[in-house]
Design brief:
Radius of gyration: 18 Å
Distance between the termini: 33 Å
Strand content: 5-15%
CATH class of the largest domain: Mainly Alpha
CATH superfamily of the largest domain: Winged helix-like DNA-binding domain superfamily/Winged helix DNA-binding domain
Number of strands: 3
Length: 119
């Protein structure tokens, strides 16, 4: 499997695939043209890179994912916490909480997640 990283444009393109899969590569190219103004060659180049990284596959002109959107972003988040906070989720939450006040609802949701992890 390739490196599970994407730039901003690749991530928007990947979100388009996840939202429409399975999708024919020609149809994907048309969607990318309408959404981003990309030419067919640009769409196929980006798709090829994402396939080489093991995120998608293009078999006989049909594009499908090899990893779900949720799994990709979970991996990406874990890697970010590992790199930026030494793997410490409490350090990440503390840093996040100093910049943005959490609502009571957000705090309750986080507490619910913590409680479900204890079970």
């Amino acid at each position: 499997m390739g490196e599970l990283r994407m730039g901003t444009a690749e991530a928007r393109f990947a979100d388009m695939i996840w939202a429409n899969e399975p999708i024919l590569s020609g149809e994907l190219s048309k969607l990318a043209n309408g959404e981003f103004g990309w030419k067919k060659t640009t769409s196929f180049t980006v798709l090829k890179r994402l396939c080489e990284r093991g995120i998608f596959q293009n078999q006989n002109g049909t594009v499908t994912s090899l990893i779900s959107r949720e799994a990709y972003y979970a991996h990406h988040s874990e890697r970010y916490v590992e790199e930026a906070f030494g793997g410490s989720l409490p350090a990440f939450l503390a840093a996040f909480g100093t910049r943005k006040k959490l609502s009571d609802q957000e705090i309750d949701e986080i507490q619910g997640i913590i409680e479900s992890m204890r079970r």
